[in-house]
User: Fold MFS transporter from Pseudaminobacter soli.
Amino acid sequence: MVSVAENAGSKPDAAWGAVLSMALCVAMLIASEFMPVSLLTPMAEGLGATEGQTGQAISISGLFAVLASLLITTVAGTLNRKWVMVAMTGFMLLSLALVAAAPNFAVLMIGRALLGICIGGFWALATAVIMRLVPESDVPRALALMYGGQAIAAAFAAPIGSYLGGMFGWREVFWALTPIVAINLVWHVIALPSLPARQKQDFRAMFDLLKRSYFLRGLMACMLSWGSAFTMFTYLRPFLEQVTGVDVTALSILLLLLGCAGFIGTWAAGRFLKGNVAPFLKLPALVMGGATVGLLLFGFSPIAAGLFMMIWGAMNTMFSVIWMTWMSQNADDTPEAAGSLMVAAIQTSILLGAVVGGLLLDGISIQATFIGSVVLAVLAFVLIGNGQRMLKSA
Assistant:
């Protein structure tokens, strides 16, 4: 690690080992949060629940992530941020164990609630922690390294999860994650330096930010876009099984295609997302909503389904970059308050998307779930327009 730091022109005390530990934590968080997507059907069967009910395992983690993201910096107060991060990883480890051993639906939901606390707390503090681990000039590189964990998990967690779940069972998939998270927890303890609290989050900063009409509009558009995405994504497996008619192997391949397409989206975001972000804001709703329409019309064909899933997956990774860039440009004077609000907004959307999609699936059909996703995408597209009303200079 020292040689990497020196080659990057870093100071000798740059904590690159800690950055890598954060990247692993991101990968495990993403894998843990969305693993039920690839295991939805067998989890529902194993717990004696419907697929719509089991989908709420994602919504409950979203609910607690919202609460944690808004409260973590206040509740943590003067606690050393190193030990807050260690505690968040401990919650993830406990969550995985509870989910893997869950004898019933109630225990599953408790485990997912603990994961939600970890998700909200981690993401609300992650960027601020990274900024303290390396010199200012190395922060972009460190952030890219940390988000690399997200890209890897998005590409491989779902297909590997569905494949191993078919071979060994869904509980074994969650058990398999626990030793990795345990190693990550120990790595945090060793690699993270002491990070004394600097300043408590003031709720007034968040309320003041919400009074800015351009930011509130942007936040609402972001929520509609994310809600659309997760109304569809949470119930993708039932669609592929019921409409496309794939087996576990084909399902794993399709999910792998979706995930790997995300690397294309990451490259495209870095290549084309420069300057004025307004024209890009409507792209996630437009492209991902369009891909969902494509699945509704042609999803009976595995080849067509794979194509539209790749389009969806590529835009999915651009999605975060586009909206986080908007946040950094339009709330640069209060980035911590904006970050807490963005995490809360995104997790609320994941929650609502899973709830609405599950109700439509159980009450009507999987096609109704996907139509609901398209409706939310249309609402987001209309609200965004040309994007200019989302900018502080407008």
Q: What stands out?
A: The first helix runs from residue 2 to 7. The radius of gyration is 20 Å. DSSP finds 16 helices and no strands in the chain. The chain has two domains: 1-201, 205-394.
